[in-house]
Structures are given as structure tokens and as C-alpha cells.
Specification:
Blueprint (H helix, E strand, L loop, with lengths): L3 E6 L6 H13 L2 E8 L9 H12 L5 E7 L2 H8 L3 E6 L2 H17 L4 E6 L9 H9 L10 H10 L8
Parallel strand pairs: 1-2, 2-3, 4-5
This protein binds adenosine-5'-diphosphate.
């Protein structure tokens, strides 16, 4: 039986921190479903389609990763996909409280559901999509924080002159 996990998040946009969790997750699981959680009432920086495309491009040719999107409860999506393992990344103590609450709520809503956490690496603990969006919107450099294709997409979004694509 294949061990699959869902790696859910907003990925708005994907960062090198996310990428690292995906790569490490593939050492533990046979396959991952990277699932973009979206809320049609909120306005993200990148559309779901743009985010799917960016994640696919950043991952490259990796048949063990599927990129998908869902709206609504994660547990409903997990049930629908028949997957009971959720993968999440932990950056700092500040992530812990919310993640602890979320993992227990998800298990309450869907008892077979287990959440597995991976500690982020020292190169990534300070990276968040929100900070990346802020830095890029203010014209700051995001190289090393996000994959090159995301860097180009941010440059296009904020009309940077250094956009080579
Ligand atoms: P959310 O909006 O649910 O926080 P994100 O897209 O920000 O979603 O993140 C999805 C998952 O990836 C979360 O488990 C988050 O903790 C983790 N994550 C985000 N950034 C990093 C990082 N730099 N290193 C490790 N894990 C990360």
C-alpha cells in the first residue's frame, strides 16, 4: 500500500521553505498531494491557477507529487481523496500553538486523520509567504527565499524592471 500525505497550505506564493518540506516529505512518503487551500471570498496575490503552475514548475518532473486545490474544510478534502495523513511544516514555537490546535481539531472532525510535522531547516525558518509578498511589493530582493520561477512571477506582478522573462 502506498503511503500518501496531503501537504496543505495557501502557497501564496510557494517559498523555498515549502519546497524543502516537499523534498523531505518525499523521503518519508511514497507520494504527496500538495493541496492549495483557497477561499473564493479572499483576494490572494496569485490565483489558484498561477499557484498550481508555479508549484509544478518549481518541483519539476516529479511524478510522486500531485498539485491540487480545494475550497472548504481540509478534512472534507482528505476524506474525498481517501488520505488520512496531513503533512505540515513547523518553523518556530510561534507556529506550534496554532498547529497543535489545528491538528487536534482535524482529528476531532475526522478521527483517522493524523498530522505529521517536519521541523524546518535553519535556512528556512524565517521565510513565510507573507513576508515574501511584503518584501517583493516593496521592491526588495527575494532571491534565495523563493524558487527562481516564483521570483520571476513576483517581479512580473510588481512590475520590476529586472524581470528577464
Ligand atoms: P498556511 O496559510 O496554512 O499557513 P502556508 O502556505 O503558509 O499555509 O504554509 C503551508 C505549510 O507550510 C504550513 O505547515 C507551514 O507551517 C509550512 N511552512 C511555511 N513556510 C515554511 C518554511 N519556511 N519552512 C517550513 N515550513 C513552512
Amino acid at each position: 500500500m502506498k503511503r500518501l500525505a496531503i501537504y496543505p497550505g495557501s502557497f501564496d506564493p510557494m517559498t523555498n521553505g515549502h519546497l524543502s518540506i516537499i523534498q523531505r516529505g518525499l523521503r518519508v512518503f511514497d507520494g504527496l498531494i500538495v493541496a492549495i487551500a483557497y477561499n473564493s471570498k479572499k483576494t490572494p496575490l496569485f490565483t489558484v491557477e498561477e499557484r498550481i503552475e508555479m508549484i509544478r514548475e518549481a518541483i519539476g518532473n516529479e511524478p510522486r507529487v500531485e498539485v491540487d486545490a480545494f475550497e472548504g474544510l481540509l478534512v472534507d478534502y482528505a476524506r474525498q481523496r481517501n488520505v488520512t495523513t496531513i503533512l505540515r511544516g513547523l518553523r518556530a514555537v510561534s507556529d506550534f500553538e496554532f498547529e497543535f490546535q489545528l491538528a487536534n481539531m482535524n482529528r476531532k472532525l475526522y478521527p483517522p486523520c493524523e498530522t505529521v510535522f517536519m521541523m524546518t531547516g535553519e535556512d528556512y525558518f524565517f521565510i513565510s509567504s507573507q513576508l515574501v509578498r511584503e518584501i517583493a511589493s516593496l521592491g526588495g530582493p527575494v532571491d534565495g527565499l523563493v524558487p527562481p520561477n516564483v521570483q520571476r512571477a513576483l517581479a512580473r506582478k510588481f512590475g520590476r524592471k529586472d524581470d528577464q522573462s
